[in-house]
Amino acid sequence: MAEDEISFRTRVLRGFFWLSSGTFIGQAISWVSTIFVMRLLLPSDYGIMAMAGTVMSLLTVISEVGIGSSIIQAGKITAEKIRQIFGFGILTSILAGIICYLAAPAIALFYNEQRVVPVVRLLSVDFIIVIFFMIPQSLYVRDMNFKVKAIVDMSAQIGASILTLILALSGIGVWALVIGVITPHAIKAVSYNIVCSSWMKPSFKLKGVENYIKFGLQITGGRLIYYLFCESDAVIVGKFLGDHLLGIYAVALNLASIPVDKVLPIINQVAFTSYAKIQDDSERIRRNVMRATRTVAFASFPLFFGMAGVAKEALPLLLGSKWASIVIPFQLICLTLPLKALSPICNSAVAAVGQARVTLINNIILFTIMVVAFLIGAKNGIVGVCLAWVIAYPVVFFITSFCSLKVLKISLRDYVSEMIFPFSASALMLLSILIIGRMIETLQPALAVVILITVGTSIYLCATLIFRKDDYSELKNLLKR
What we know:
Distance between the termini: 20 Å
Order of helices and strands: HHHHHHHHHHHHHHHHH
Number of helices: 17
Number of strands: 0
Shape: globular
Number of domains: 2
Strand content: under 5%
Radius of gyration: 22 Å
Helix content: over 70%
């Protein structure tokens, strides 16, 4: 058993290594490209894209109907059943594309912005593209072959980033962002079908795959509610505050969320797949959940608190003076992102053991409380919406975590104990950065950013070596493996 667990852990770490390495390389290029694109485009361009993206994300969640998750979670599955699931996915994707195309005028009417219509209609093509890489991608993930996935994803991301920058330089405005969304999916569709050993012919006979579809629909229900939560702030800001302020808010949120948005999929993919492999061993799942929580908390709290600390100096330097208004929203959002980074750990474990209903209930709680908070916050502008994140999201996080931990038979006290030191040390680091920032505000911004990052990193590392040397050693050994 010990050897099996070591082998299993090695596969998990290897998968995380490949996905994180591919993501890091792809994001290093993507972030540079994004910064240049932001300097070339206007806030209203991002506002139009956010309006169109709201409905696109909704239909994407519905059209996929959880078929990837059902394949990964299944204990055994035949090639014929995979062909049937593929056929079901094609039907739902075509339906979603048609709905999206026809709904474009209604979306424009809701936002009172006619420029949304052609954007939504072009993006509707994306639904058909996505389904043609969903099945082969899920099969690679199911086998924990993350190397191929990392290479394909990295290539798609780099290609899309370069093309988006070229198009932004050509002066086509929001269309650079639209094409930049479609491009990575097109590259994945071609790449996955090239590396697969054979072409998979879809079957439209659905008899015999009802259980897989049922599980996928349960997953989809949870994702749908979570999507509504993720898009609710953009809808509320766009409706009540307009496209200009929505563009500012969207950039602040997206920029602050870049690390978590890129790491969360990695955690989700590796965690869900690995938990599914050991879904009958509850003790191993508990150990892995606590270990993952400790590791993610140790890294995420200092990262996001540090980003909040240097935002005043770094953001105008990176994006230009026209984006100076995003500093305060960016800082407030960063304070809640460590909790958002931790949330998929329990969610993945709960889904892997077949308790999709718990995830659905948690997402309903999340959506209900946060929408009310966003509506109240919008009365005070963008800062009010960001304060809704700071005040309401931690409450929701601990309520939903309690529900998930109960299924996994982990006490909330033990779970929270893994976060106390990273939070405390990071709060001390943030306070120090803000104080020193005031003392050196007359320096050149670039020099000030370097000093603040150096000071913040030193404070957190010193606190770790003094008070939690074992955690430092564990993370060091993890990185070595």
